[in-house]
Design goal:
With 181 residues, the protein is an alpha/beta fold. It is built from 10 helices and 4 strands.
Length: 181
């Protein structure tokens, strides 16, 4: 994929890249700097516009959105609205794949997929790279958590027979974490 921070590069830059026929890879819209747009209570635009409607209209294939159970400070209802605005029928504009992110660990996969569905990307950096056995084990633990959810198995139960996942849950549990603080 080609990642573009559309909020600092500009929506027009995202649109130009999306319409460029020489770009033949998915476009990932990153939301860094989004807090300046929707973080204030009395100023800015709603996150549904800055993280949903505008990047979708400009052609992003997937958009990073803050998840309320990671390090992001976003209301649950705003998160749910962001998920909806990326997917709902909208004229001729194709849906955009949501990418919940921001401090998500292996123990949050179950909740993330329950709330956001199975057709998502999960953004994780710290949960992979901070695993006690290193990033390969961190990636395996994420894959194990996803496999458990896709097969209807509780992540905690699956972790008992999968060392990497068990260690991740031992460090971070299944709730909001101070992983990145």
């Amino acid at each position: 994929a080609l990642m573009i921070n559309y909020l600092t590069a500009g929506f027009e830059a995202l649109r130009a890249i999306a319409e460029d026929p020489s770009i033949k890879v998915p476009i990932l819209g990153h939301m860094d700097f989004a807090g300046a747009y929707f973080g204030g209570h009395w100023t800015g635009l709603t996150s549904m516009i800055t993280l949903g409607k505008f990047p979708r209209m400009c052609g992003a294939d997937t958009v990073v959105i803050p998840a309320p159970y990671g390090k992001a400070e976003i209301l649950d209802e705003r998160y749910e609205q962001n998920l909806k605005v990326l997917r709902y029928p909208f004229q001729h504009i194709k849906p955009t794949l949501p990418m919940p992110s921001g401090g998500i660990t292996q123990g949050m996969v179950e909740k993330t997929m329950k709330e956001a569905g199975k057709d998502i990307l999960i953004g994780s950096g710290g949960g992979i790279h901070s695993h006690p056995d290193g990033p390969i084990a961190g990636a395996k633990a994420f894959r194990q958590a996803i496999h458990a959810v896709m097969n209807g198995i509780e992540v905690r139960k699956y972790a008992k027979d999968h060392e990497e996942l068990g260690k991740a849950l031992g460090v971070w549990g299944t709730g909001k974490t101070a992983l990145i603080e």
